[in-house]
Design goal:
The structure holds 2 protein chains of 2 kinds.
Chain A (H helix, E strand, L loop, with lengths): L1 H31 L6 H19 L4 H25 L8 H23 L4 E2 L4 H4 L1 E4 L2 E4 H23 L1 H11 L1 H6 L4 H27 L1 E2 L3 H16 L4 H21 L4 H15 L10
Antiparallel strand pairs in A: 1-4, 2-3
Helix pairs in contact in A: 1-6, 1-7, 1-9, 1-10, 1-11, 2-3, 2-4, 2-9, 2-10, 3-9, 6-7, 6-9, 7-9, 10-11, 10-12, 11-12
Chain B lengths: L3 E12 L2 E12 L3 E6 L5 H9 L3 E8 L2 E2 L5 H6 L2 E4 L11 H6 L9 H7 L1 H4 L11 H13 L5 E5 L7 H14 L5 E4 L3 H7 L2 E6 L2 E7 H6 L1 H8 L7
Parallel strand pairs in B: 3-8, 3-9, 6-7, 7-8
Antiparallel strand pairs in B: 1-2, 1-4, 4-5, 9-10
Helix pairs in contact in B: 6-7
Classes of the chains: A mainly alpha, B alpha/beta.
Chain lengths: 291, 235
């Protein structure tokens, strides 16, 4: 029983990281129909900038951690905004080119990060409490899981408030459903595209800092290695659905944890099987809409 | 001769590389309702979408004295064109209220006017668009276009697939709206055309084949049959 509790909580913690990557990806695809293979580098960039800021302020202090989160989010957002304005904006409705340019950007950015910060992983340990454990339901749960869950919950609430309580949020929800009709109402949907890309980048950048503290390292390929799971989560949850991404993130991560522990480390395989089952049974994803 | 609000010259439109409007030229007066007629698939909706820039197009389009063929869709709409699309296209996951709010462009939108014109949807503001009946969705779609003070409405098959009672309600709403804003109306229901339209433009195979007064066309049974493939009487 102890193992089940531990696997569940750590699964939710890992799912929180997946959610931070997948939510932006899902929003971007849902509104803009852009498969953004460069999304992972927003995460890595945010992680590195957060690391640099934390190093200056104090890598083992809470002030350093919180400032790193803010700096990482801003860095991810800025990177994403520039990507949208300089590269993606010219390529709307040109899906092949979008894939090529985002894959190219991802490869170039990973190489660039390696050139700046080195190709090896940089170990990263946060405040002492983050490295400890807390007794819960009879098991010692690593504290970092609670911070990851809290961070993802804040992002989920923030995104839902933005989507449901602001005019831009309303435009984005409408655009996910019928983009050309939004345009036909006199709304410049390109502004929404830039905003969504930036929001996706902010969340990914924040996720980069959180992931680096969760895995205790930052590396050039950290974001891209998480991206594959983010794509899976996005498809399982339903493209464009933030709620779906949240549910699918937790589901995928818990399943992965249990399979890794009980079924000879087959977590990744089980996740791919789950993806196949969802695509066969409900191709629109758990909470996705019909095309 | 009344003023012209919209002048279309040699409009060609294509979607996914396939030409759907070949060479269309016509004018829409600044008052009343002008019906755009034709058999199924002749390019009526495509013409509307071409004017709005929703489809790739070539040719000259002059709206209120200003060329708009180089503008993007949202820029064209912001000049004062309201659009009621075929199949309504309201946002099914947004509430009725949100469907109306998202359409508001004017500083002082015509909320009261819309509420008086469509009391039924006023009472259903909290419902999601997807939970409404087809007729109610059409009312929302019309309300969305009427909530701003437009200079022209492009209305595409507003009675399509609706029950006779709802068709009458939609016709009444259009008639009322036409007192304040001119319309280019795509419509298959000739009874509605007879009731609402002053002028008609008939398309065939992507080209204009007839322009004139609605009464004149619909009074000529043989011509109506030849151009539209239906009988004007009893329609």
């Amino acid at each position: 029983m102890d193992t089940i509790i531990l696997l569940t909580i750590t699964g939710v913690g890992l799912g929180s990281i997946y959610f931070l990557v997948a939510s932006g990806l899902s929003l971007i695809y849902g509104l803009m129909h852009v498969l953004n293979f460069a999304h992972g580098v927003f995460l890595s960039f945010g992680g590195y900038i957060g690391y640099e800021v934390a190093r200056i302020i104090g890598i083992e202090t809470w002030t350093g951690f919180v400032t790193a989160c803010i700096a990482g989010a801003l860095a991810g957002g800025a990177f994403a905004l520039l990507t949208e304005l300089l590269l993606i904006r010219r390529l709307y409705n040109r899906h092949i080119e979008q894939v090529l340019i985002t894959v190219g950007l991802a490869l170039a950015a990973v190489a660039l990060f390696g050139g700046i910060w080195g190709h090896d992983s940089i170990p990263l340990f946060g405040p002492e409490w983050l490295r400890g454990t807390t007794g819960m339901l009879g098991v010692d749960v690593p504290n970092k899981n609670f911070i990851m869950i809290l961070g993802a919950a804040l992002v989920l609430i923030g995104l839902q408030l933005f989507l449901h309580k602001t005019r831009y949020g309303m435009i984005i929800r409408a655009g996910v459903e019928n983009r050309s009709m939004v345009t036909a109402l006199g709304i410049d949907v390109r502004k929404s595209f830039a905003l969504v890309f930036t929001i996706g980048g902010i969340v990914a950048g924040f996720g980069g800092v959180m992931a680096s503290y969760y895995f205790n390292y930052i590396s050039p390929s950290l974001g891209q290695s998480l991206l594959i799971f983010a794509f899976i989560v996005t498809v399982i949850g339903g493209l464009g659905s933030i709620g779906g991404a949240a549910v699918a993130s937790v589901l995928v991560a818990i399943l992965q944890q249990f399979a890794n522990y009980y079924v000879f480390g087959t977590g990744d395989v089980v996740v791919v099987v789950l993806l196949a089952v969802v695509l066969l049974v409900k191709p629109t994803g758990l909470l996705g809409k019909k095309a | 001769m009344s003023e012209i609000i919209l002048k279309v010259e040699n409009l060609q439109a294509s979607v996914s590389g396939q030409q759907v409007v070949e060479d269309v030229s016509f004018e829409v007066p600044a008052v009343g309702i002008t019906a755009l007629l034709g058999r199924n698939g002749v390019g009526k909706s495509s013409t509307i979408k071409g004017i709005l820039g929703l489809y790739q197009r070539q040719g000259n389009i002059i709206f209120d004295g200003q060329p708009i063929q180089g503008l993007l869709t949202h820029q064209i709409v912001q000049l004062g064109i309201g659009y009621v699309p075929e199949d309504r296209e309201i946002f099914s996951k947004l509430s009725v209220e949100e469907n109306l709010r998202i359409a508001e462009r004017d500083k002082n939108p015509n909320r009261r006017y819309v509420a008086e014109l469509f009391p039924d949807i006023e009472a259903r503001k909290a419902q999601t668009g997807g939970s409404l009946s087809g007729g109610q969705q059409q009312m929302v779609s019309l309300a969305r276009a009427l909530i701003n003070s437009n200079k022209l409405l492009l209305v595409d098959e507003p009675t399509k697939g609706l029950a006779p009672k709802i068709v009458t309600e939609v016709a009444v709403a259009l008639e009322e709206a036409s007192k304040t804003v001119p319309m280019l109306l795509v419509e298959q229901n000739l009874e509605v055309v007879r009731r609402l339209a002053e002028d008609v433009i008939v398309l065939d195979a992507g080209k204009v084949v007839y322009t004139g007064k609605a009464k004149t066309l619909l009074a000529d049974e043989a011509l109506t049959q030849r151009l539209l493939g239906v009988h004007s009487e009893g329609a």
